[in-house]
Each structure stands twice: as C-alpha cells, then as structure tokens.
Design brief:
Blueprint lengths: L5 H40 L1
C-alpha cells in the first residue's frame, strides 16, 4: 500500500536503464563482430 510516486518510477527507470544497457551491449558485440569480419577480409586480401 505504498503510494509514494518515487518508488514505482524508480523501478521502471532501473528496468529501462538495464534494457538500454543490454541493447548497447548487444550492438557493441555485433559491431565488434562486423569489425572483425572486415579486418579479417582486409588482411586476407592484402
């Protein structure tokens, strides 16, 4: 029965931050994989 507006907002903010962090990590992993592929092909060509 907690009617404090700060508690639920804080919970949703934390979930949002975690979701954003997960997306950033996923993009970083995919980006590094793409970078590794391009560097591998470049080294193979040269």
């Amino acid at each position: 029965m907690n009617t404090s507006p700060g508690r639920p907002m804080w919970g949703t903010e934390v979930r949002g931050v975690l979701a954003i962090a997960a997306v950033i990590v996923a993009i970083a992993v995919i980006w590094t994989r793409i970078e590794n592929r391009t560097t591998d092909t470049e080294t193979a060509v040269t």
